[in-house]
Design a protein that fits this description.
Blueprint: E1 2-6, E2 9-12, E3 17-24, E4 32-38, E5 45-50, E6 56-58, E7 66-71, E8 76-81, E9 90-97, E10 106-107, E11 111-116
Parallel strand pairs: 2-11
Antiparallel strand pairs: 1-3, 3-8, 4-5, 4-9, 5-6, 7-8, 9-10, 9-11
Length: 117
Amino acid sequence: VQLQASGGGLVQAGGSLRLSCAASGRTFSSDYMGWFRQAPGKEREFVAAVSGVGTTDYADSVKGRFTISRDNAKNTVHLQMISLKPEDTAVYYCVVRRFSSPRYDYWGQGTQVTVSS
């Protein structure tokens, strides 16, 4: 399984970015796909996830600002981020959790998001 994330970059506070992740190596249509992030000196934290049928879940810190979506035909997951804050600065990781798994099984390499104040 490979997860290739893209779309990170440098943006000013209040700006927007769209992260994308292309998955390959298996069929993901039943899996949960999502994003975690890790800021410098902090633990990795959950950001958002979407089930195979489109049910979404968000961390409280990003609700109303981030939107996760997926395209099962293309094995892709996206994270639209608006109203970005400096505290959103982190490396963002694309993740996949198999439907029957209790944990996220596959992790991408990460893409850097930096929000300047």
